[in-house]
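Re: the pair you flagged

First of the two:
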Amino acid sequence: MEELKKRVEELTKILNEANYNYYVLDNPTITDQEYDKYLRELINIETNHKELASPTSPTNRVGGEVIDKFNKIVHAKPMMSLSNVFNEDEIRDFDLKIKKEGFNPKYVCEYKMDGLSVSLIYEKGKLLRGVTRGDGITGEDITHNVKTIKSIPLELKKPLDIEVRGEIFMNKKTLEKINKKRLEKGQPLLQNVRNAAAGSIRQLDSKEAAKRELDNFIYYLPEPEKYGIKTHLEALKFMEELGFKVNSNNKLVNSVDEIFEYIKEATVKRKSLPYEIDGIVIKVNDFDMQDKLGNTAKYPKWATAYKFPAEEVLTKLKDIIFTVGRTGRITPNAVLEPVIVMGSTISRATLHNEDYVLNKHLMIGDIVSIKKAGDVIPEVVEAKFERRTGNEKPFVMIKECPMCHKPIEKKVGQVDYYCVNPSCPKRNIESIIHFVSRDAMNIEGLGDEIVEELYNLGFVKSIEDLYSLKDKKEKIMEFDGYGEKSVNKIIENLEKSKDNSLERLLFGLGIKEIGTKTAKILASNFNDIDFLMQATKEELESIKDIGSITATSVVEYFQNNKELIENFKKIGINMKYKGKVAGVNELVSGKKFVITGTISKMGRKEIKEKLESYNASISESVSKNTDIVIVGDNPGSKYQDALKLNKVIWNEEKLLEVLNDLQ
């Protein structure tokens, strides 16, 4: 508990300093992503340990402090901030919580503008006051600057007493124009449109604010009941009729799936918009439903903000640890402060090898930027040297295996170190885990922890031992957690795996350089493992997509593992390829495909298998080497990339026509 208390104090200090620097000094020192991460961690601790929650905690604040340059104004109705969601699961959870209250909501989706919130108050249709959100309770009077924004009406089309709320922002081209002038004058450049808008609206001289050409969208009506309005969509139309600028991209949706479609469309449009958006706001449309759902102490329960996945985010490199793979390769790994990258929480990332760490000049304790390579694998991009404090520790490559403590070796001309001890327990465990994995022999019931436990108990010391588990069934069942039903299932799945096609065995053996695709190429070309074992390096190299390094690895493996293959034959494991022999089609064979969007009449896996059976390859991204891009409904940015690179495009009709012709 004492450790948690210290962490709460540390997080409180970080967030308070960040609030002060951002809202008071207008000088952000950490990114929004870092701020969100620390705030979510503090909320989580306080939720689970209410005794650690303080009345002065940053989680009780909606925003930051109000500077004394402007008059302070108390909002008639608090300007609350929104909770954040980062992926589809969290959006579904938001929807589920509302449905559990007995509602069946429709939502309005809106662009989340990257600017600053404002309240506009009118008396008898004339602009009386403009106020910033401030801390949500008290804001700053910025009326003199609001009047310079041409998209904000000074007089409404109806003489109403009304308050509306929206976002003041700066367009991308405006920022470029301002920075060009500042560069010519030798002045520091404005960092981004959000900071530029915030700084502009706080100008004491309204003439200076006018030069910044700020813009505005209105998105909220605090007291709709005064005007007989029942839904948020009606309110948007009502405010537009009064003369306010309302974003035309707002949309009523009927389900969570339609929210996802809206997000996909917005993600594609985002780069071409004249302004910056950093997410999507999702609001319950019906005002009566909003009132019944109510608010938490911090957020409305009827709305949330989906944040676009950050392509690069910052976090702390807490440590560098080393792991041993099935081939004995030693890999340094980054231990990170947990951070959300593209919708998933990342706390580890591979650092590949010693050269990778040294070339990036990484030190333990660095603030580093993280991204997902190919949108999948977490990658450390760089250290932020300017954030160093002097307390960082240099990286030192280990000299011995972290598991068996035998010396590690690095071959001439290679970048990786290897544990060369064939009896290294970690190597053996990893090789067994790989063998039983889904893409290899696909033996259900043998997860990583089960394999490691069976290894430590002495039941499985090699992959051959797996197939003798049926003889050890009674002894295994003596241990806690191994009931007869679960053990029988494992044995049944092991027996079933004996009939797998050859490519699964080849991949499962863990031969260096042999992935699932290469395993299938070898299996389909040789059909029988005996023919493959007799193949020379030259014969292997003559096969498309098999290079010199791969060929050498295959030859060396079978020279050194003949006894293992013979043992597998005795066990009864299939050694022949059971798949279809690759066909030939001039439209498909040898071509590189990319698929984007939804194909309604066929699943991606089925498309992929059909194309690959004709020696085509499927890639995840469009490049100059791509031959054909298959485009379905709601395509992503890959479609735009295909157009830019002038690639051949097939729609669903063309795809099905070609696939139907394949025999």
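Second of the two:
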Amino acid sequence: MRRNCSEISTATVVALLAGIIATIFAFTDTGIELEEDIGLATWFRLRGPRTPPGDVVIVNLDRASASRLHLPDRPDKWPRSIYARLVESLSRSGASVVVFDMIFMEPRVGDKAFARAIEQAGNVILFEYLQGRRITVRDRPGPKGVNLSIERIVQPLPRLARSAFALAPFPLPKVPVRLNRFWTFKTGAGDLPTLPVTALQLFALSAYDDLVRLLTAIEPGSAANLPSNRNEIIRGKRLVETICDQRELFTRHPGIINRLLRRLEDPAWGIPQREKPLLKALINSCRPEDSRYLNLYGPPGTITTISCYRLLDQDTRGDIPRLEGKTVFIGVARHNCTNQKDGFYTVFTRPDGLDLSGVEIAATAFANLLEDMPVRPLPLPVQACIFIIWGAAAVLIPVYLPPVFSALILAGAGLSYLALGGYQFGLTGTWYPLVIPLLVQLPLTYLGIMAWRYHRLSRQRENITKAFGYYLPTDMIDYLARDLSRLKSTPRSIYGICLITDAENYTSISERIEPEKLNLLMNRYYELIFRPVRDHGGHVSDVTGDSMLAIWTDTGPAPGPRSSACKAALAISMAVQRFNQAHPDSPLPTRIGLHSGRLALGNLGALDHYEYTPIGDIVNTASRIEQLNKHLGTRLLASGEIVHGIDDLLVRRLGEFLLVGKSLPIVIYEIISFLGKASPAQRRLCITFSQALDAFRKRQWGVAQKMFEGCIHLMGEDGPSRFYLKLCERYRENVPADGWNGLITLREK
């Protein structure tokens, strides 16, 4: 097929743009999140479990040990003499490093014996806890200040802390998302090395003297602040300080790491072959970055795990693996999901819900550092090249080859890329981008270029599509254009967020002004409230008189679309305020309601008229929530399903309501403002109202009334407080029946 110069030039420009756009998107928070949640998980699943290094073992403080040793189920309640015996047993077994992944904050029987055992072992690292705290810093008198997050170190008992060779924290995020990274150094706590780094440095201490020798040869004077040999570290227990000094040196001189690694491989330096991996791990563990990606070995129990009682029971000691020269992590590792608390969701979380425990994560991080094989994303320039190459392939191949043939070639290229990436991931932990090039860039670019190829042959269809674009979403237009019979197809069941607005005064205004002027006024009004919906990723589904229905769709109740809908609602409120200031004679105060859940999205109608609209109870409930504004004297209400998990908004819980025509109650919140822009008065209002609502639920009518009156005094006027004041008066005279839990039943819209 012949191509003219214009077509070739256009294809080349599009190919370059596809690569650049994909590169930019890949490095946004959304792109990184997609790669972590989908791409990284896919590589792990393709690779499957792998064998961990034999130098790390977990001693499990499990229920079997508690039963055999006649101890409480909770290890923190065990007498410390048990831990003393455990340390002594590990010392006799020749363990190189002993790491406790548990905090010893409260005195217990046997602390003295435990401290003595730790001191005699000389290789024990204890866990110290990081406690987060928010403080307000003010540079001048006044109510406003800057909120800072600091982390306070909570050490174990002083007697135990003095006995330990080192102390180290190991903070991990405990949120409902997949755990992908671990901290090597904790910036919020003064750049302290974490438990895996500290354990690795102690394990590899035999290579420290060679590190100092290499540093002195490469950069004379660079090791001046470091201990001259490992004996100084051991005598002074200066491990943590040495790690910090080493990292500070590598941060000041970033090129020195690669120079050290090159010298390490030089036979002229006489580094023993068995010591090179340790020295390499010693160097790489102190790189300037604060965190690394975990290279997980498999599901719970993949790392060699020994029940504690087997080390303490003479009848079972002969069955345990050799511990000589190994690093032993001690903690609670559940192997069933019953009462698991210290668990972290990973790609290897078992189908029954069993997560990796904290001690297994710590041991995994240590093993990654020891192998020098954490998961490593490709360097940014290499990733950019991959995106540009895929962009060029996805554009140029379909331009020069027939559609079916080009699709087969691209599919083959994708499978080859998948095979190469999987091989590299399993061999070295190298992480190739997957979601952006294969799942986003390739299909989207391919479909885009196909549409562009047939652009000249489908002018009429394009005009129709453009006309329909004012009434339907783009994806629905393409869907119908391919087959108009789909107009009557079954609606799609999806998760959606519905935003409904309703303008007051519309009826009175429509009576006063001519239809032409009303049309101009409403067009200006809708232009202002449509824009926030589109800017935040929503779609205006329906407009009826003075009411708008907008929707956001997703595969599930993720916080992203719900947060976008809330931001759009706040932006609409601000836009309406500007509109009313510009049109004082025809203001349109607007009420907004938000709700989310499963709904059907499709064409509703018959014969020769259809409308693309959401269908389901979610739409009706959002409408009822919008109408609830009239009772509460508010402007912006949302259900609990909407605001759950969104942390950047100031919201006020207004109670639990049974709305008109509904059989199930719903928790209602008022969205007040963005959290960062909330005034002190608004924050105090939320606190006071919450206390008042709690008193209301407890039937403390007098206490509740005073607090609601305090809310009104604080803000000058407050609709929800007025609403509850009336209810308090009513319930004083007609006390609710037994079992009433604060539910408000509405009888009218």
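The longest strand covers residues 590-606.

-B.
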